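Extended Data, panel c. Modelled sequence:
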Amino acid sequence: MTTQSALQQRLITNEAATIVQQAVALAKSCGHAEVTPVHVASSMLAVTNGLLRTVCLQSHDAHPLQVRALELCFNVGINRLPLDSTSSTMSMLDSDSHHSPRLSNALVAAFKRALADQLHLHGFPENQQQPLLEVEVEVEQLVGSILDDPSVSSVMRDAGFSSSQVKNIVLLP
């Protein structure tokens, strides 16, 4: 079992895993070697009634066109990411290609932040060794940790959104 599948199967809910799988597919279709927080945020934003889109609309009574502008900014951010130099154009176009992008260090850090937030939410002290199978990262914590990433914050800022303001709304009790 790969680290990525273990992470998806053991540490995050099915809903969050679906978003990560969409981000992996996005990174793969773009020919990127790594899945980044920008891929995940873009995948979250693409869900019509998804949490990130809904909260962005609520964050400062945004017009749907502002959220569309945010989507476009994420597309630009994704297009600026480096391509996977190990894959040929033919393998990127080949749907049967077994090459899958790996999780970037920034995305792994986001998962760790989300897991720490989830553990804290359930009252587990940080220094207590707790079996990780008892706690799964939910979409709210994943969104919050993705919004903490500097690359995502930068894209949000470019579109006129405050990632910290959006995060505060997401994590409201």
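Strands lie at 34-35, 102-103. This feature is highlighted in the accompanying rendering.
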